[in-house]
Amino acid sequence: MTTSNVPLITPLSALFLLLLLLPFFSKVLALSAPRTFLVRHSDNHFESNGIWTSTGNRETSSKRSTTDHSYQLWTETYHTIANPLGTNLVAINTTTTTIQVNALLAIKKSIQIDPFGALANWTNEENSTYCSAWKGVDCDEMGNVISIKLTDLRLNGIINSKIGNLMHLSYLNLSGNSLSGNIPSELMKCRNLVAVDLSFNYLDGELSAGYIYTLPKLEFMRLSYNSFSGLLPEVPENSCYSLTNLRITYSNLIGAIPSSLNRCKNLTALLLDFNQLNGSIPTSFGDLHQLVVLALQGNQLTGNIPNELASLKNLQILALDYNNLEGPIPTWLGGITSLVQLYLQSNQFTGYIPSQLAFLKNLQILVLEYNNLQGPIPTWLGGITSLVQLWLGNNEFTGNIPSQLAFLKNLQILVLENNYLQDSIPTSLGGITSLVQLWLANNRLAGEIPIELGSLKKLEVLDLQTNYLSGQIPPSLENCSSLEYLLLNNNSLTGTLPFGFEDFTTLWPNLYALSISNNKLEGKLPLSSTSLNSSVVFMDFSKNNFTGGLSIQVSGSHLSSLRVLSISYNQLEGPIPSWLGDLKSLQVLDLSHNQLTGPIPQNFGNLDGFKVQSKNVSDPLGGTLNNSYAPLFITPRGEDMGEEYSYILLETTYMDLSSNVLEGEIPIGITDLIGMKYLILSDNKLEGGISPSFQFMEELEALDLSQNNLTGVLPTKLPFTLGTFNVSYNNLNGAIPTGNQFNTFDSSSYLPGNPGLCGDVINKPCVADNMQPTTNTTNNAFQIFDYGALWFPLIFYSSIWFSTVFY
């Protein structure tokens, strides 16, 4: 049989077969077609808080950016397909996308509180926009998550372990939240991490060497301001190649500093300050030749500064303050000529300042205070002309203040307080026109205040208190228009105040504290209607010879910020002006030991500053003070107030009107001052009774009403907080209450005086019926008379009834 050439598949059958397979090809094409992702790149690279400020917190100042890094994209995550138009499209691996979206959703799920709704659109419904619209997420061109930045959002929760699935993550910044729990070990899976900032949270648990030292690309790690426990991990061998910046401050780390940190050869900044680290500074740190910043302050480190640190020739900032280091200041420090800032304060260093420090020509900040250094202040310090801050206070320096310091034309802060310096203040200091703060308190300086100081137009702080200065206050100080603190108390200054002081609102518009107490000044106080300034917080004119009365032509609103006013121990007379009752911020008022007359103003009940209870007291610089007893205002640095200010504390509310000639009753509004802690009204001519409302002054610790003309009975209740109570030398009567606080007072609280009082505490029994003392025959005779007076009407009317009935 002959076979014919008939095609196996005819065109018609081929077309039919194609129609049958069309649905299958459609699915294949759908799976391989590129999905569209909108990819955005952040213009803001990972930012880390900078190194130091010239004053205050050195961890949180200037900002700098890390350098850009190129990312090697994995070729497995995409492929190209030629479309009919010939355009190359980028297709992203759907599996990788799903893993990343799920990781981000898991991170969100671990956040219990999101007060600003920052993660509101992190949802499955919007997962196609995770790169373009999800807050804080940045991706590369392939849709890989490379950066998460969720800072200062008050997020509360934990860091989910799924973060380890973000394999391309390079930058992670979750600082400034309320995250807690451990740092998940899965973070080690993020092998592309370059920078991590988890600072300012509540993270706890022990730290792992894995995510600190072993991530191959990690350069920046900041874990400061957390609540970790345990030791700083040792550095494994053959690791920590890329780490340049390690910051774990204020985080409760304990134990010794690992000597193996010298394996991190590229470290330029190592900040471990304000933890609880102990032991000595590792000598191996001498191997960290790239170090620019070494900050170990605020720990419990002991021993000497190791000589091996002399090899750190690139070091610019060395901060070892607030430890227990001892011995002399090393001479080799003079060989680290790159040093810009040197902090050694609050240790136990002894001896002299080494002359080799004169070679530090780049030094801008030198802080050596609170040690046991001695000898004269070196004259060669005047040759380090780059100095901006020089802190030598609270040591044992002797001699005079060298005039060579006047060569420091860039100097802004000079602190020489609490030493044994003597002689006069050099007039040449007036030539340092850049000076902002001058601290010379608590020395043995004598002579007059140089008029040349009036040339310091930028001066904000002038602290000359507790010296032997004499003469008048120079009128040239009126030219220091930037003054905020003028502290001249505890000297022997004489004469009247300069004429311009009568209008210090104009002179010093930013004045914060003025203290001229405990001198020999005279004349009238500068408290007139034109001499008030709403920025003034502290004014102390006490212990002088000021005379006259307090002006009544004043509006208390001009002193809306005033918290402390002391005019005690002068020779003032006349009434207490009512404008004092309008000082809404006042917390300390001392008018004692003058010759003031008249009543206590009724509007003293309006003193709102005395109504604020300690749990609600706020720091003048912001924030709530949690039982903080830091000194108030007498020095802006918060140290060494002096004995006469020991009672002035941030939480203290103190009113002393004692030793005057005040009359009338105690205003009932006084008992509305429920935040009052000390109320002293003794040695006046006050009269009337003691209000039962004193029991509502729940924070009152001392109440002295002695040496007045008070009458009536004692209140039956007093605040539980009351520790000192004195009503002696009055005319009170009745039984002394018992129980609660009354059981804590002895007879000196009531005697001498008060002959009408009775009670066991003063050994005068009280009669049950009328609560009168029965200690002598005279009193008994009066009692018989009193009983007769009670019975006589009954006998009289009984006799009339008897005569009517029987006669």
UniProtKB/TrEMBL annotation:
Protein topology in the membrane: Single-pass membrane protein
Main subcellular location: membrane
GO cellular component: plasma membrane
The keyword Transmembrane helix is assigned to this record: yes
Domain Leucine-rich repeat-containing N-terminal plant-type: 100-140
Keywords: Cell membrane, Leucine-rich repeat, Membrane, Repeat, Signal, Transmembrane, Transmembrane helix
Localisation per UniProt entry: Cell membrane; Membrane
Pfam family of the protein (one): LRR_8
Signal peptide residue numbers: 1-30
InterPro entries xrefs: Leu-rich_rpt (IPR001611), Leu-rich_rpt_typical-subtyp (IPR003591), LRR_dom_sf (IPR032675), LRR_N_plant-typ (IPR013210), Plant_receptor-like_S/T_kinase (IPR051809)
PANTHER family: LEUCINE-RICH REPEAT-CONTAINING N-TERMINAL PLANT-TYPE DOMAIN-CONTAINING PROTEIN, OS04G0122200 PROTEIN
Similarity section: Belongs to the RLP family.
Name used for this protein in its record: Leucine-rich repeat-containing N-terminal plant-type domain-containing protein
